[in-house]
Amino acid sequence: MTLLLKLSQLIDWLNERVAKGAFWLVLLMTIVSSANAVVRFVFDYSSNGLLEIQWYLFAAVFLLCSPYTLQRNEHVRIDVLSGKLSPRGLAVIDIIGTLFFLLPMVILVLWLSLPLIAESIKINEMSANAGGLLRWPVKILLPIAFTLLALQGVSELFKRFAFLAGMIDDPNDKKKGPTAEEELAAAIAAAKAQEAK
Length: 197
Fold this sequence. Notes:
By secondary structure, this protein is mainly α. About 75% of the residues lie in helices and about 0% in strands. The protein has seven helices and no strands. The relative contact order is 0.14.
């Protein structure tokens, strides 16, 4: 089990690095979107390529950050159920969900997407829009992201089994301290208090 936990740490490290790299795509997406708006209003010019690169970047952020979201336990849960379970019960639910829902879904998406991506690369598929971009670069994100998601699912399985065996602390235990939203609310309240003085 120790070897599996080391493998889990390696997967966590990989997905954290990928996600933190993808965070920079948000800045790039904002710059492209702003430039596109400025060019459209100032020069009365628009480009389908610029519009498409925005959704390519959004797709990259969404797909590449999904494994990190799972790792950080920030994914969607049914609170009505999970809030009433003990940590051990929640770990069992996570194991069942990963084995019977997450991993089969990932395998299905990979199995169905790979032939489509291969065909897209083979024919050098282009957007149907005038001035649009190649389609295969964004399509190739699917197997990359879903492979990373599968790896993260396996990592989470290892952690849940180790927790049930008493080898590690509860992996579902959120870090104590304020959330990002609470920190932002506190900063706004402090700024308003400062203005009031």
